[in-house]
């Protein structure tokens, strides 16, 4: 994976690069990857970095992102929410053959009836090899008028829908200055037959097909996102149908990418759902991220690495991110300040790097923004050391916050006020 403003973390980025490659060759459907590492080491950044690669492929590989905690707030069961995310991440490329008529307009002749209400007409259209006369009905005449088609235009007519598109003007008419606007495009008069077959492809996700076919929801739910639960019968019918289309060569399945951030927030039911789904026939590539060490699996009393059950871990390829060296932190802070249009003195950069090492990269990044606001307040375009110092005292980092709490613990409500041995019972006056 190339840099994209990312610094260091070479190992992890190389691994991500391999994954992009595998996605391109659609080799790892049904695989799952875990990006594991301490907080703010760029896990989310690396996973999101895959997206532009998919886009530059010009491809239609779907990419879905889900923050694990989202599934608890939706108005559907956890597993349904996961299922929908899975199916959003699987694309179906549908091939369609359409018949078109493509050629240069020789003449359009429109006859109005005496009352002017009904129209009839004739269209002469040619290629370099042939010329044909078509009768025009009201609808086609309107369509031609709408597209402002005149003799000398190269047009294409979709036979099924009657849709007309103007491809440009014929080279032969290049000297017809009247009929031209500044952006006129010239094209060659087509060769061969007037009628042609053309293959078109559309890609939709399985989820979109589900919603459109689920009678209770209707396709408008796609826009509101209010899809509710979709019956499993609907899904299995769709899977069968798509299986048939695949056999007949009418459709291709494109496994996409599902990114589940903060995956330790899922619980044991979700994990077993994922386990099973990974083994299914239609599965996307799942990328998860977690910053947990050995911790309890949600919904159980067991502890496990990254908060994931061992049987799921066993199916995962694990990429790990590590903490940054001072040089890398400096580099990241420099890039960050450039992005935010903040000018830092070199002294400030050093201090921020130090803060980044001792507290966290995130905190140092936050300080850039705050220090900049403080500098702007005293009408300075450059952020100096005193601005950072001020920001550092105004906003404390996590470690200082913990220390502060330990020092003044008895002033806070802890919920233990009524316990017998509580050091200082709550005073009721
Ligand atoms: N290698 C890097 N190069 C440039 N910027 C980085 C790099 N790593 C992290 N950052 C920046 O640091 C911040 C934190 O990174 P990110 O959100 O990806 O961390 P994370 O590993 O997902 O952390 P968490 O576990 O807390 O979710 C982001 O603003 C990101 O842009
Ligand atoms: Mg993250």
Question: Briefly, what is this?
Answer:
GO terms for molecular function: 3'-5' DNA helicase activity; 5'-3' DNA helicase activity; ATP binding; ATP hydrolysis activity. This protein is an alpha/beta fold. The protein contains 14 helices and 17 strands.
Word description of this protein:
Residues 29-323 form the AAA+ ATPase domain. One of its GO terms (cellular component) is R2TP complex. Its EC number is 3.6.4.12. The structure is a single chain. By secondary structure, the chain is of the alpha/beta class. It has three domains: 2-89 and 256-320, 3-Layer(aba) Sandwich (Rossmann fold); 96-200, OB fold (Dihydrolipoamide Acetyltransferase, E2P); 326-407, Orthogonal Bundle (Helicase, Ruva Protein, domain 3), CATH 1.10.8.60. Helices cover 37% and strands 24% of the residues. The chain has 14 helices and 17 strands. The protein has helices spanning 10-24, 43-56, 78-88, 138-146, 206-213, 221-224, 232-247, 268-279, 310-313, 326-339, 346-358, 361-377, 385-394, 398-407, and strands at residues 32-36, 63-67, 90-112, 119-126, 131-136, 153-158, 164-170, 186-187, 195-205, 251-255, 257-261, 285-290, 294-296, 303-305, 316-320, 343-344, 382-383. The strands form four sheets. Strands 3, 4, 5, 6, 7, 8, 9 and 10 form an eight-stranded mixed beta sheet that branches. A hairpin with a 6-residue loop joins strand 3 (90-112) and strand 4 (119-126). Helix 1 (10-24) runs parallel beside helix 2. The protein starts with 9 loop residues before the first helix and ends in a 22-residue tail after the last helix. The model has no long low-confidence stretch (mean pLDDT 84). Bound molecules: adenosine-5'-triphosphate and magnesium ion. Residues 5-9, 39-45, 289, 291, 332, 361-362, 365 line the site of adenosine-5'-triphosphate (ATP).
């Amino acid at each position: 994976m190339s840099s994209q403003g990312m610094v260091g973390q070479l190992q992890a980025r190389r691994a991500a690069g391999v994954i992009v490659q595998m996605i391109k060759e659609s080799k790892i459907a049904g695989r799952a990857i875990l990006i594991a590492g301490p907080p703010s080491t760029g896990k989310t950044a690396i996973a999101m970095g895959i997206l532009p690669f998919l886009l530059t492929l010009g491809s239609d590989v779907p990419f879905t992102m889900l923050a694990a905690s989202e599934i608890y707030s939706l108005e559907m069961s956890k597993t349904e929410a996961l299922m929908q995310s899975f199916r959003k991440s699987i694309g179906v490329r549908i091939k369609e053959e359409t018949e078109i008529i493509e050629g240069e307009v020789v003449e359009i002749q429109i006859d109005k009836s005496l009352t002017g209400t009904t129209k009839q007409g004739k269209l002469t259209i040619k290629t370099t090899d042939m010329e044909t006369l078509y009768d025009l009905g009201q609808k086609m005449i309107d369509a031609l008028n709408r597209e402002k088609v005149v003799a000398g235009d190269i047009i294409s007519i979709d036979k099924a829908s009657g849709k007309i598109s103007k491809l440009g003007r014929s080279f032969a008419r290049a000297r017809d200055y009247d009929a031209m606007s500044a952006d006129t495009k010239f094209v060659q008069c087509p060769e061969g037959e007037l009628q042609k077959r053309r293959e078109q492809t559309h890609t939709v996700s399985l989820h979109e097909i589900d919603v459109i076919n689920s009678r209770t929801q209707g396709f408008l739910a796609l826009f509101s996102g209010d899809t509710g639960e979709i019956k499993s019968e609907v899904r299995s019918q769709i899977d069968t149908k798509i299986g048939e289309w695949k056999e007949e060569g009418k459709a291709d399945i494109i496994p996409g990418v599902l990114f589940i951030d903060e995956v330790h927030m899922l619980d044991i039911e979700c994990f077993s759902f994922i386990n099973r789904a990974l083994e299914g026939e239609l599965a996307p590539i799942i990328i998860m991220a977690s910053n947990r060490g050995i911790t309890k699996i949600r919904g159980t009393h067991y502890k496990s690495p990254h908060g994931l059950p061992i049987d799921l871990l066993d199916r995962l390829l694990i990429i790990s991110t590590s903490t940054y060296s001072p040089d890398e932190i400096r580099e990241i802070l420099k890039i960050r300040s450039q992005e935010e249009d903040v000018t830092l003195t070199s002294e400030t950069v050093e201090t921020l790097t130090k803060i980044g090492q001792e507290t966290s990269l995130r905190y140092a990044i936050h300080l850039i923004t705050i220090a900049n606001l403080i500098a702007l307040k005293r009408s300075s375009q450059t952020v100096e050391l005193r601005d950072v110092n001020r920001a550092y005292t105004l906003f404390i980092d996590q470690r200082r916050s913990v220390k502060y709490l330990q020092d003044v613990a008895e002033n806070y409500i802890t919920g233990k006020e009524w316990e017998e041995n509580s050091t200082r019972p709550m005073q009721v006056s």
